[in-house]
Amino acid sequence: MLTSWWVSLSVAMKILWGVTLAASLIFLIQSILTFIGADGGDGGIDADFDSGFDTEAADAAVEGGTNLYTFRNFVNFILGFGWSAILLQDKITSIPLLLILSAVVGVALVAIVMYLFKWLSSMQQSGNINLYKAAVGCNGTVYIPIPGERQGEGKVQLSINQSVREYNAVTDGEALKTGAQIKVVEVLSPDTVLVEPLESLII
After folding, report:
1. What pTM value is reported for the model?
2. CB 189 within 8 A of CB 135
3. What is the pLDDT of residue 55?
4. Residue range of the domain that includes 182
5. What is the pLDDT averaged over residues 109-127?
């Protein structure tokens, strides 16, 4: 029955079905890869709270979704156009009108997906902390002892935006033991801060 149905189609409809099914498969694969990439970013939460959703795979997916001239948006257009033409072919006898409506649906699908990725991008940015702005002046606790005079790195736990985050830390003064109270005086890199003992601030 499937064979007879396929044979009964015109050449144009066979091409349309083929392109639409291919676009549907590519869309499915892209969606799976996008969410796998997003989920993969969460695996680093315990080790580095700043990593969060911000992985290369997730960034590429989000950036690709917010740019107009991308392969992803081309696939989305074909997806909307193809399925609209297939589903409406028996209801709309005018070919020009069918093509116009299908094109409108294709453009609408591209716009919806771009809006979705823009929303995801804004959520990602709001979830990430700008360490250079947020950490300086924060108090925290030494988690792994910090050697003195920048002879090595330890780790500290800082309370930023009502959540505890862990960073590498160095100090210019004497060594700091586990449990010592500290204050961040400078951010040296996205995962390393310069700290000093909180007691040194008391006059």
Report:
1. 0.47
2. no
3. 40
4. 131-201
5. 70
Same domain, 120 and 161: no
Within a domain: residue 1?
no
Q: What is the three-class DSSP state of 138?
A: coil
pLDDT of residue 120: 66
* 3-class DSSP state of 30: helix
Q: What is the CATH number of the domain that holds 186?
A: 2.40.50.140
CA 43 to chain centre: 13
Range 130-158 average pLDDT: 85
pLDDT of residue 24: 92
Closest CA to 60 of 120, 127, 130: 120
> Which one, of 136, 137, 182, 172, lies nearest residue 152 by Cα?
172
Tokens, residue 82: 């193809």
Instruction: Name the nearest CA neighbour of 66 among 18, 118, 102.
Output: 118
Domain co-membership, 100 together with 20:
yes
Q: What is the DSSP string of 33-55?
A: HHHHHHHHHHTTTTT-TTTTT--
Residue 145: count of CB within 10 angstroms of its CB? 15
pLDDT per residue as tens digits for the range 169-201 = 999 999 999 989 999 999 888 788 999 998 754
